[in-house]
Amino acid sequence: MINSDRQLFESVLDYPDILLLLRLVVGLVFVVAGRNDLKDAPAFAKHNGLSVPIAWGLIIAEASGGLGLSLASFPNWLPW
Q: What is the DSSP letter of 68?
């Protein structure tokens, strides 16, 4: 079982375009979810039982994480 899992993982690494697409899709999902939460942060806080400042921090972290994941897919495009 473990050997077949390793072979599956190594075979996925042979297709970097699929990994790029996966990173972009996951990053986009986080950015869109953060944007949707940002539209009504107090309702998001109330629904999750959080204070509003903590909710703002989580929303910013969610959107920033998605953006970072997407931008890290293209390291040669970044100026640093």
A: H
